[in-house]
Write a structure and sequence with these properties.
CATH class of chain C: Mainly Alpha
Chains: A alpha+beta (about 325), B alpha+beta (about 130), C mainly alpha (about 170)
Number of domains of chain A: 3
Strand content of chain A: 25-35%
CATH architecture of the largest domain in chain A: Roll
Low-confidence stretches of chain A: none
Number of domains of chain C: 1
Radius of gyration of chain A: 23 Å
CATH topology of the largest domain in chain A: T-fold
CATH superfamily of the largest domain in chain A: ApbE-like domains
Largest sheet of chain C: none
Strand content of chain C: under 5%
Mean pLDDT of chain C: 83
Strand order of the largest sheet of chain A: 1-2-6-7-10-13-14-15
CATH class of the largest domain in chain A: Alpha Beta
Low-confidence stretches of chain C: none
Oligomer: heterotrimer
Order of helices and strands of chain A: HEEHHEHHHEEHEEEEEEEEHHEEE
Order of helices and strands of chain C: HHHHHH
Structural class of chain C: mainly alpha
Number of helices of chain C: 6
Structural class of chain A: alpha+beta
Largest sheet of chain A: 8 strands, antiparallel
Helix content of chain C: over 70%
Number of helices of chain A: 9
Number of strands of chain C: 0
Shape of chain C: globular
Chain lengths: ~325, ~130, ~170
């Protein structure tokens, strides 16, 4: 008799022990790489989730420091590398090495990480709200190009030509998002999570209800509206490059931050390019590349790379959606949110 | 412990289980929407709660129009179709998450889905 | 109905002891996790005191005990007329009603009374919460709370059952 009672008691208590462990969600937002990064993770234990998110931020910041062109945050970082341009091979950290190597190995001249001198010219003029003249642009372009740097992976060095400089703004964030997401994915205390680095998002795991992650894409011309909603799977990434993210206007013409390495001017082939892929680095890289490439070339690249898919708002405001995305992209009706 | 006590426990468990299932099936009704498809294309998604009177929706197919009627209380059903056996019309109403009516010859499908709440994305890509 | 004036000193002492224990139990419960985010929602372990009181003293004096307990707990912890106060109140009222009825009916042992009380306690808390937040969305928690009531009810009922003879003996 008593045994039955005890058993009942234990069984029902166990049941409730399970009930007591409601999933806990923790979200933190920090500023890094000149944008707001927010990481949200869900798991069983508050402490462990917080630890997981803190670790993810730590690794993100490590990469941010190593790839920061404007602050001397790391002895083997980008700031120091650029400062040593023309002085022979310079030992760099693992993240910087990897990124430079990947950029060097890819073959599109429309994607260029050596645009630092050009970007500096534009930044100076954006402060004055003026447009750089052709001679100035040509002069800075002369210092850019894949031939201006080389990577020696075994020696862990990068050699930069005099006057040149690397800028990793197009790929560092995506790469960091991948690494942070991987850290969260590996953590057994994390059931699912989302890394959102302003313009770069990656999902980790499946949500509790098993439904796809719903990510809203901002309307390129209205800051208070959505272009549409995309359903992401677990461990998938999406990134957007747009002419509305960083720009200034002179005489009604918009000068934005995605520059065409051939002309030195902001690319006019598109208004926004959103890429979906399994890796955040890839989405970052391709969203920049496909922004600069003319539309026909974009379609060729997409056809050649079935592992990525894109949503493109062209210069004429027409929207192109990759066939593989059509079933999971809901266009928001005009005027809606 | 008396016999009644055991009966009580049993009753509670049954009640809990019953309530659970009852609640599970009716919970979707608040956010129900009907997705009307023709082949691979979603023609329209109609929010159940947005209807104040019975609405009619038609899908243009090769052979004619498939007419779908959505009632604010009863749900969706097909009232007319150019297909030969008219099986779809006899499928009756659907009004719970996951239910579907299919008109195979015309490739028309009406599915009741749990519509997401407005403005509730998991994140915004800026 | 016996009026309070007829309380003997012995009864008064015993009731006060029970009151103290009930208050402590209530306060201690604050630390224990409750599966749902309801302010002031508690497991309801103090019910065991109510059961003992019901079986020893009957409805009126138990009601007196309950009122005193609610007031004291409000002073010490939940505060008056806060959401937590009302949720606790709802649980207390409903569980008292059901337990008093169960006692009267003589259908159940203290354990059964405990379980009924725990169910009513949880349901009372949930109902008040739904009224406060003006939503029926919480209704999906009923099954969980009902199941939760079984072990808590068992605990309170068993505690009361074993404590009762000991108290009767000494008092």
């Amino acid at each position: 008799m008593k045994k039955v009672l005890v058993l009942l008691f234990i069984l029902s208590s166990l049941l409730n022990a399970g009930c007591f462990s409601q999933p806990k969600t923790y979200k933190d937002t920090r500023f890094s790489m000149d944008t707001t990064i927010s990481i949200e993770a869900t798991g069983k234990n508050n402490e462990q989730i917080k630890t997981a998110v803190d670790s993810a931020f730590r690794v993100f910041q490590e990469i941010a420091d190593e790839t920061d062109r404007y602050k001397d945050s790391s002895p083997e970082g980008l700031y120091q590398l650029n400062a040593h341009a023309g002085q022979g091979p310079f030992t760099v950290g693992p993240h910087l090495l990897l990124l430079a190597d990947m950029a060097h190995k890819q073959n599109f001249s429309e994607f260029d990480i050596t645009l630092a001198p050009l970007i500096d010219v534009w930044q100076k003029h954006s402060a004055d709200k003026t447009v750089p003249g052709n001679p100035e642009i040509a002069a800075s372009l002369a210092l850019t190009g894949k031939d201006k740097f080389s990577v020696a992976t075994e020696k862990q060095t990068i050699t930069l030509a005099t006057g040149s400089g690397l800028d990793l703004g197009a790929i560092a964030k995506g790469y960091a998002v991948d690494v942070a997401a991987a850290a969260l994915a590996k953590d057994k205390n994390v059931a699912f999570a989302l890394v959102n680095a302003g313009g770069n998002i990656k999902t980790v795991g499946n949500k509790a209800d098993g439904k796809p992650w719903r990510i809203a894409l901002q309307d390129p011309r209205r800051s208070d509206a959505y272009l549409g909603i995309i359903n992401l799977k677990a461990d998938e990434a999406v990134a957007t490059s747009g002419d509305y993210q960083r720009y200034y206007e002179v005489n009604g013409i918009r000068y934005h931050h995605i520059l065409d390495p051939h002309t030195g001017m902001p690319s006019r082939n598109a208004i926004s390019v959103t890429v979906v892929a399994a890796s955040a680095f890839m989405t970052d890289y391709y969203s920049t590349l496909l922004f600069v490439l003319p539309h026909e070339k974009v379609l060729e690249v997409l056809a050649a790379h079935p592992e990525i898919a894109a949503i493109i708002v062209k210069a004429d405001q027409e929207i192109y959606v990759s066939p593989s995305l059509q079933s999971r992209f809901e266009l928001t009706p005009a005027g809606g949110k | 412990m008396r016999k009644n006590d055991y009966l009580l426990i049993l009753l509670i468990i049954l009640l809990a289980a019953g309530l659970h299932f009852f609640l599970k099936t009716s919970e979707a009704d608040d956010n129900l929407a009907f997705e009307i498809r023709h082949g691979d294309n979603v023609i329209q998604t109609v929010k159940h709660s947005a209807l104040t009177t019975t609405g009619e929706f038609s899908v243009n197919t090769h052979d004619g129009n498939v007419l779908i009627e959505i009632d604010p209380i009863k749900g969706a059903h097909i009232i007319d179709s150019p297909c030969p056996d008219k099986l779809c019309i006899h499928q009756g109403y659907i009004n719970k998450n996951g239910q579907t009516i299919l008109c195979l010859p015309e490739k028309v499908m009406v599915t009741a889905i749990a519509d997401k709440k407005d403005g509730e994305p998991d994140a915004v890509l800026r | 109905m016996q009026s309070c004036a007829k309380l003997t000193t012995r009864e008064l002492v015993l009731l006060s002891l029970l009151l103290a224990m009930a208050v402590v139990l209530r306060l201690v419960e604050n630390v224990l996790p409750f599966p749902i985010q309801l302010p002031g929602a508690k497991l309801g372990l103090a019910n065991c005191i109510t059961i003992i009181a019901l079986l020893l003293f009957g409805n009126t004096k138990t009601l007196l005990l309950l009122t005193a307990r609610i007031l004291l707990v409000a002073l010490l912890s939940t505060g008056f007329f806060t959401p937590g106060f009302f949720i606790g109140l709802g649980g207390a009222v409903l569980s008292f009603l059901l337990m008093a009825l169960a006692c009267r009916s003589h259908l159940f042992s203290p354990v059964g009374i405990g379980i009924l009380g725990a169910c009513a306690h949880n349901c009372g808390q949930l109902i008040v919460a739904m009224l406060l937040m003006q939503t029926t969305a919480l209704i999906s928690y009923f099954p969980l709370l009902l199941l939760l009531a079984i072990p808590t009810g068992l605990s309170t009922g068993l505690l009361a059952k074993y404590a009762l003879p000991a108290i009767r003996q000494r008092f």
